[in-house]
Amino acid sequence: MDIDGEIMVIHKYIRDHYRPRFSELETLVPDPYDFARTVKTIGNETDITKVDLDSILKPATKMVVTVTSSTTAGRPLPEDELYRVFTACDLLLELVEAKAKIVTYIESRMLFIAPNLSAIIGSATAAKLMVAAGGLVSLSKVPACNIQVVGKSHETATGLSGITAKRHVGYIYYSDVVQDLPEDFRVKMMRMVSAKCALASRIDAQHESPD
């Protein structure tokens, strides 16, 4: 959670200082990780068609970014300002990688940290839930109705309809135990699993019944 807080601070710094160059970019690419990579790739380039964004952005988002860049009123940044923006981008990317390493380590220890929760939802999803909640004790205090939205994505399909977008779903919805079912049953299964995860996290927080 501390790393997430630092990422948000740096993300705001990058947005504020890169805004004179391409003010619309922050609304088109809301994810901090993708935004930092996009800023580093574009830099002061005025013709974004010459920039390779295929490995960073989805085709629809890339198309909107390219079209918007051709009409933006932005100006190139001075070299010293661009250097500070790039330094902030590098720092944000390092923090994201550090968080990923921590989550991977926690995932490898989940069978010892939260055996019941891992048995229900799997070690990978259990680790994500615990990290997002700020620890096992914090997760054990979250009601089942809120556990189902932990990890909710705020990403939008830029330029496309949002009718088919899944709302009020988080890590549990995209876990194997839910995704293995036909789509018509997934929301109901997500609610059932969320309730069981709430119980399991409370049991695991007591460290008395690992089986």
TrEMBL record:
**In terms of domain of life, where is this protein from?**
Eukaryota
Q: Which organism is it from?
A: Spiromyces aspiralis
Q: What is this protein called?
A: U4/U6-U5 snRNP complex subunit prp31
Tell me the organism's taxonomic lineage.
Answer: Eukaryota, Fungi, Fungi incertae sedis, Zoopagomycota, Kickxellomycotina
